[in-house]
Amino acid sequence: DVLSRVGRFEEAYTVIQAMPEKPTAKTWGALLGACRNYGEVELAEIAAKELWKVEPENPANYVLLGKIYMSVGRQEEAERLRMEMKERGVKVSPG
């Protein structure tokens, strides 16, 4: 979390991969959130895919990746992600 918050994404990812325990949703979520702050798409996609494995129905993980895509001008991928959510039956609660 600390490494990713200061923009050291590759190092943070290496630490996560080397963890003796399986990384939790909280771990991947921290990396995904930090990626949003810095527009780090590649690692955001990795973190999101890992989150989908442990929390496949949590819409926040999809929405955050979609926001990252939009922030870097990748609207088509954000739209593809929305369609994927629909296909998987993942719904965002209003509010």
Automatic annotation (TrEMBL):
InterPro entries: E_motif, PPR_At4g14850-like_plant, PPR_rpt, TPR-like_helical_dom_sf. Pfam families: E_motif, PPR. GO terms for biological process: RNA modification. Coiled coil: none annotated. PPR repeats lie at residues 58-92. Keywords: Repeat. The keyword ATP-binding does not apply. GO terms for molecular function: RNA binding. The keyword Plastid does not apply. This is Putative pentatricopeptide repeat-containing protein. It comes from Noccaea caerulescens (Alpine penny-cress). The lineage of its organism: Eukaryota, Viridiplantae, Streptophyta, Embryophyta, Tracheophyta.
